[in-house]
Structure formats: structure tokens, C-alpha cells
Amino acid sequence: MEVTDNDAITIRFLIEHQLAAFQKDDAQGAFTFASPAIQAQFGTSDNFIQMVKISYPAVYRPRSVFFEKITTIQGNITQPVLLLASDGVPFRALYFMEKQPDNTWRINGCFLVSVESKEV
């Protein structure tokens, strides 16, 4: 699947706005950017934000965010984002994106990979 410049802008917008929603503890806002499958998996926005708080603290409260070039991983359109966790540990968040039947994009999962580096 080819990703247009507009797709790339839209995907970055979605991720930035979900990160902003986490910063404000806006569970409902953050949940709206998740794909139907993710929403079905967690059921409620409160379940979703609790999971992010516990399992993805670098996503929940990043100290800094840097978007890398969109790529494809195992057939998934993927937006890599470098995050600096609040404790200074760097992570690469791989956001798996899913195009919906109405041509909108949603976040269909996020996988954190440690970045080999010294603490900042």
C-alpha cells in the first residue's frame, strides 16, 4: 500500500493528538484514535488509558517526541516515533496504522522497542 504525503500528515496528526490526550488524561479523546479492533479489545476508554499508563509509560508521558519516516513492517503501515521516557530512557514506538473503510486512519497498535543508548 502506498502512503501519500497527505496520509503521512494525517497519521502524524493522529499520533500527536493521541499523545496530547494522554498528557491531559483525556481517556475518551485518546480512545477515539484507536482502531475498532483496539476499541473492542479494551471495551472502554478507562480500560484503555489504564493499560497505557501501566504498560506504556513512555507513550503516556513522553519527555520528547521525534517522528521518523513511515515504513512498512510485515505489511503494516508503521509510523516509528522516538520517545524519551520521563526517566530519560529512549524508546522507539512503532505505531501500526490501519486505514478504515471510510478512508480515515486509526492507530491499530503500538509496539515499544528499546533504543540502545545512554540515559539523557
Average per-residue pLDDT, rounded, comes to 94
- Give the distance, in angstroms, between the N- and C-terminal Cα atoms: 37 Å
Indicate the CATH architecture.
Answer: Roll
Helix content: 25-40%
Strand content: 25-35%
User: What's the number of structural domains?
Assistant: 1
Overview of the molecule:
This protein has 5 helices and 5 strands, in the order H-H-H-H-H-E-E-E-E-E. The protein is an alpha+beta fold. The protein has one domain (5-114): Nuclear Transport Factor 2, Chain: A, CATH 3.10.450.50. A hairpin with a 2-residue loop joins strand 2 (71-73) and strand 3. This is Phosphotransferase system, mannose/fructose/N-acetylgalactosamine-specific component IID.
What's a quick, concise take on this entry?
The protein is an alpha+beta fold and about 120 residues long.
Properties at a glance:
120 residues, alpha+beta, Nuclear Transport Factor 2, Chain: A, 5-stranded antiparallel β-sheet, 5 helices, 30% strand
List the helices and strands and how they pair.
Elements: H1 5-23, H2 27-31, H3 36-42, H4 45-55, H5 57-60, E1 64-67, E2 71-73, E3 76-84, E4 90-99, E5 105-114
